[in-house]
Structures are given as structure tokens and as C-alpha cells.
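Forwarding these from the shared drive since the link keeps breaking.
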Amino acid sequence: MDEQSLKDIELELAILIRHITSISSDKRVGTLDRSAYLLLQRLFTHGSAGVKALADEFHLDISTVSRQAAALEQKGYVYKIPDPVDGRAFSFQITELGAKELAEHRQARLNRMKYLLRDWTEEECQRFGQLLYKFNKLASEVSFLSEAGGR
């Protein structure tokens, strides 16, 4: 990869992050911040999970996930399930209200994406999704390796 291509990708990613942040803070596009959306999406899709498992999955500190989950619990979007073996441990499960909020937020995001991609072909949309997946998967693996002390 030449240096200019790398610079172009870096700049476009920075601009994309700015746009995503702007969209996420636009209350017309939903009421969940990025961390809440991702946690609820994970719990909805894969079921209950403990703080450590969520922290490992998202490559975050346990304290960060605990704080985010506590905020979701305060809003009634998740509830704790006690561990039957270890009374101190628990998992989080999404509530009906959390699932409803997630669905509304996701639909608002999808509507926004549909509008932004309205002039793209189906092939372009599929390829863009594939490349984003590939990039995010690699970024997650590299992030994990960096945290584990490898590179």
C-alpha cells in the first residue's frame, strides 16, 4: 500500500467517525449512545452475559462496562440475573423496554443509512458492508493483541 492510500484511508476514517458521532448525538436518530446501543445489541442477539465477558468481548475495562451496564439498569433497559453458584456474580439480561428502545434506535439508524446510501447499487452496499466487517474484525484482533502485550 502506498503512503497516499494510507493517508486517504486515515482521513476518511476520521471523517466517518465524526459523522457517526454526529448522527449518534442527533436525538432524531435515536436516544441511545454508542456504548448503550452496542451493549443492548449484544445482549439482545446473544443473550445474558456477565461484566467480565462483555469487557473481554468489547476490549474494555471491567469498570467501564460495569458503569455502562449500571446506567442501562437505571433506565430499566437491563436487569441483573444472580449467578446460582457464586452469589456475588451476576449476568445482565435485556428487558422488554430495552429491546423496544434498541429496536426503535436501530430503525432510526437504518432509516438514516438508507437515506445516505439511496444512490448506491446493491453491489456497492454489499461490498461496503464486507469491507467494513473485514476492517472491524482486523481492528478488533489488533486491539486485543495490543492489550495482551503482543504486536
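-- next protein --
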Amino acid sequence: MGMSVTISTAVDGDAENILKLQYLAYQSEAELYGDYSIEPLTQTLDALRAELAEGTVLVARLGEEVVGSVRGVVDDDGTARIAKLIVHPRMQRHGLGGRLLRAIEERLAAGCEAKRYRLFTGHRSEFNLRLYRKLGYAQIGATEQVTRRLSLVHMEKPAIAETYAASA
């Protein structure tokens, strides 16, 4: 290819490309659970634009093409909620998901805002579960049953370890 992937803050003009990529990236999850009505596949462009305005959204670009994205927001209690980590299917299994996750963690920890990172994934999403565990996340609480076919695994890791590592 000759180009490297760059990660930067998304702008409003990225919303449509993020939504298209999200639709593509979540097809495999919908197939895995036999449910094509999951929220990432039904989210509207207006709802995505609202997320761009209220939280932190990063995009990974290969040249001008958006090939990955992740979102996060920090609650008042210091919990950084990370969501919709997506990577274009042709770019998966090359470390881009991990790069995006680390980048959003760094961004959300800026100014010591985040005390912990929290995310969730489906109980059958083995690749996601492996990635999150590899990056230090552990399951918290019981698995949450959403439908007969889908249960969510909530995972968390402390942000403090990141802060100490950066200052050491």
C-alpha cells in the first residue's frame, strides 16, 4: 500500500463515513447473533452527529479513507465509557483495533479525567474478548442478557496504571 494509518480526532464531516463503516463492521456481529436490529446497524446519522458533539470520537485513516473509529465519553464519576470500536474488515487482525483503543484511552485520560475505562461486547465475540483481555480489561459483574441470543460482557480496567506508567 505504501501509506500508513493515522489516528486523529473525528470532525463533523467524518460522520457519514463513520456511519457507513459502522454498518459494514457490525455485519459480522449481527450474523453471529442472528440479529440485524442491533443498535450500531440502526443508528441514525443525527444520533452519530450528537455523539461527535458530546464525546471524543477518533478515526483511523488510510490516506483519505476512514478505516476505523472508536468513541468515548467520561462520566462525572471518572468512568470512561468506550464504545463502537470498529475496523474495516480488510484491515482487521493487523493491530489497528488495539491502536485505536490505546489512543482513545490516552485521549480520555488527558488531564487525569478518567479513573477507569469501561466497555462491553457480546458474549460470543471471542476476537473482541481476546483483544480486550490482552489490553488489560477484565470482566466486571455478571453477563447481562439482552435477548435470548445476545448477552453482554462488561469489562473494565483502571486508568491509574496508565497515568503512573506515563509519569515513570
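The two ends are 37 Å apart (CA to CA). The helical segments are 15-25, 27-33, 39-42, 45-54, 96-109, 126-134, 160-167.

- D.
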